[in-house]
């Protein structure tokens, strides 16, 4: 399958950019969904090894992450390792009062989960944490480029949640290596990533 051509020097036209992003989203979602269960499991194990060897992960106490959906690379092997190390990961939950934003809840082995309106499991917990309380956020990607630009599912939840630059934790995108494209069309509200890690390794974009 051939990716749609994106010309980064073309005049900025909102409808055109939205069309390009929608086309890329369709292609890249299909690309990750086409991976076999064996390929997905192998990629998840490689990803966990890369994450566990990353100094940034070792230095972080509160790590927010996600449960896989729609072919996203799984963080479950990494989560299992965090639990073994005595660390508590955090999962996003749709904020009940601030529309289109997220807050984070602790995720433990015995956490009860329930699906949100998108069918994505969320933990049930009396304790909630604000985005600024996270040291590191591992967020899913539909697509990315080497400059740290990300293409999400289109809901804008992470962009709105981390729009305030001074309150952002370290943001690291997580994806299969096959989701990389040469250049993404970018919107002014897109929140850039500090780095990206795939099953092939770490891509440093904005960290020293």
List keywords for this structure.
globular; 208 residues; two-stranded antiparallel sheet; metal ion binding; 5-formyltetrahydrofolate cyclo-ligase activity; 20% strand; EC 6.3.3.2; Rossmann fold; 5 helices; alpha/beta; FTHF_cligase; 11 strands; disordered N terminus; NagB/RpiA_transferase-like; seven-stranded mixed beta sheet
Layout of SSEs?
Blueprint: H1 14-33, H2 37-52, H3 55-59, E1 63-64, H4 76-84, E2 89-94, E3 102-106, E4 113-115, E5 121-123, E6 136-140, E7 143-144, E8 150-151, H5 157-161, E9 170-175, E10 195-198, E11 201-204
Parallel strand pairs: 1-2, 1-6, 6-9, 9-10
Antiparallel strand pairs: 2-3, 4-5, 7-8, 10-11
Description:
The protein is globular, with a radius of gyration of 17 Å. Helices cover 26% and strands 20% of the residues. It has a single domain (37-204), classed as Rossmann fold (3-Layer(aba) Sandwich). The protein has 208 residues and is of the alpha/beta class. The protein has helices at 14-33, 37-52, 55-59, 76-84, 157-161; strands at residues 63-64, 89-94, 102-106, 113-115, 121-123, 136-140, 143-144, 150-151, 170-175, 195-198, 201-204. The strands form three sheets. A seven-stranded mixed β-sheet has the order 3-2-1-6-9-10-11. Strands 4-5 form a two-stranded antiparallel sheet. Strands 7-8 form a two-stranded antiparallel ribbon. α2 (37-52) packs across α4 (76-84). The protein has five helices and eleven strands; from the N terminus they run αααβαβββββββαβββ.
């Amino acid at each position: 399958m051939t990716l749609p051509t994106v010309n980064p020097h073309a005049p900025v036209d909102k409808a055109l950019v939205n069309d390009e992003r929608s086309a890329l989203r369709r292609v890249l979602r299909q690309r990750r969904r086409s991976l076999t269960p064996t390929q997905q499991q192998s990629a998840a194990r490689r990803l966990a090894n890369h994450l566990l060897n990353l100094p940034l992960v070792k230095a972080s106490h509160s790590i927010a992450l996600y449960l896989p959906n729609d072919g996203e690379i799984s963080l479950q092997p990494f989560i299992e390792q965090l639990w073994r190390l005595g660390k508590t990961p955090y999962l996003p939950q749709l904020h009940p009062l601030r529309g289109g934003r997220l807050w984070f809840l602790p995720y433990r082995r015995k956490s009860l989960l329930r699906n949100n309106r998108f069918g994505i499991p969320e933990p049930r917990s009396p304790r909630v944490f604000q985005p600024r309380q996270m040291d590191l956020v591992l967020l899913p990607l539909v697509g990315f480029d080497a400059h740290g630009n990300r293409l999400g599912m289109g809901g804008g939840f992470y962009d709105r949640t981390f729009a305030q630059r001074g309150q952002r934790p370290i943001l690291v995108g997580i994806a299969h290596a096959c989701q990389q494209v040469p250049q993404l069309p970018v919107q002014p509200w897109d929140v850039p990533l500090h780095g990206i890690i795939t099953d092939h390794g770490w891509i440093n974009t904005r960290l020293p």
